[in-house]
Design brief:
Recoverin, domain 1, single chain, mainly alpha, 3-stranded antiparallel β-sheet, 6 helices
């Protein structure tokens, strides 16, 4: 007579064998599946203390890196000063405007953290029916505050 564990092992072997036959072979023939990167990692269990500590530490490092990318109050004030200094006349009512040429000048002077905001794509996104091809300084500054 076979023990209970031997019966379970045999059952698992048979299941694996029949499942693989039903699935269509031992390995998938399509090589491209091997190139798909892994995107899901299970969360560590409560008893996996080392893995939990590693997860906490990596999250903290990630958040620190992201916070260093954010503009601080002084950098925002400097950006506003530069935008105001390079505004392009005429004003529309009370709203200061800036053209693309001056927009690029401000981008060069604003510093490395601001560089990501001074692209043609962002300028075009904020451009709204201005006859002189300008964007609102206030709208751009608000965009930077929301995204940065």
């Amino acid at each position: 007579k076979k023990s209970e564990q031997e019966l379970k092992d045999e059952e698992m072997e048979l299941f694996t064998k029949y499942y693989m036959e039903w699935k269509g072979g031992k390995k998938c023939d399509n090589i491209s599946y091997a190139n798909i990167p892994r995107f899901y990692y299970r969360l560590p269990a409560e008893d996996e203390v080392l893995l939990q500590k590693l997860r906490e530490e990596s999250r903290a490092v990630f958040l620190q890196r992201k916070s260093r990318e954010l503009l601080d109050n002084e950098e925002l004030q400097n950006l506003w000063f530069l935008l105001d200094k390079h505004q392009t006349s005429p004003m529309i009512g009370e709203e200061a405007m800036i053209n693309y040429e001056n927009f690029l000048k401000v981008g060069e002077k604003a510093g490395p953290k601001c560089k990501q905001f001074f692209t043609a794509k962002i300028f075009a996104k904020l451009l709204h029916n201005d006859p002189y091809g300008r964007i609102s300084i206030m709208q751009f500054f608000n965009y930077v505050m929301r995204k940065g």
